[in-house]
Design brief:
Helix content: 25-40%
Distance between the termini: 21 Å
Structural class: alpha+beta
Strand content: 35-45%
Shape: globular
Number of helices: 4
Number of strands: 8
Low-confidence stretches: none
Largest sheet: 4 strands, mixed
Length: 147
């Protein structure tokens, strides 16, 4: 199990291949990559993400450990970027491995819901009109209620 917080761009395919090479006797690997999308006004220049490194890493490691216990994961990887990100670049990725697909899918969904609603990251959109902090969405908060 590993959490990576980094500024630099990553290659999702390369991460999946590296992750799978280290696995033995698993039946399922699930992955999800979040990508910088344009805003509703279609004028996003960049997305800026801030965090407190120790707090963020500790928080993600705790939720990762909880997911392992709850779904009997063999392994998982969370990678999340910070700093300035451009349109269509990957923001984050979750990979889970388990004996059975349902555990891998459920754990990945749980981790993604946590990252979207509770992980200590702050996002700011920069547009031609200026900048604005991204507010939390009720839909993201409601997604946590299923867990």
């Amino acid at each position: 199990m590993k959490v990576i917080l980094q500024h630099k761009l990553f290659d999702p395919g390369q991460l999946i291949n590296r992750f799978q090479c280290n696995l033995e006797n698993v039946g399922a690997v699930v992955n999800f990559t979040g990508i910088v999308r344009n805003n509703k006004a279609l004028n996003l220049i960049k997305l800026h993400i801030e965090h407190y490194p120790e707090m963020t890493k500790r928080s993600l490691e705790e939720i990762q450990l909880l997911s392992k216990k709850r779904w009997n994961l063999k392994d998982s990887l969370i990678i999340h970027r910070y700093g300035d990100l451009k349109l269509n670049e990957p923001i984050m990725m979750v990979i889970t491995a388990a004996d059975h697909r349902q555990d891998a899918f459920s754990a990945a969904n749980f981790l993604m819901d946590y990252l979207k609603s509770r992980a200590p990251f702050w996002k700011k959109e920069f547009t031609n009109d200026g900048s604005e902090w991204v507010l939390s969405r009720i839909e993201d908060e409601n997604s946590l209620s299923r867990w």
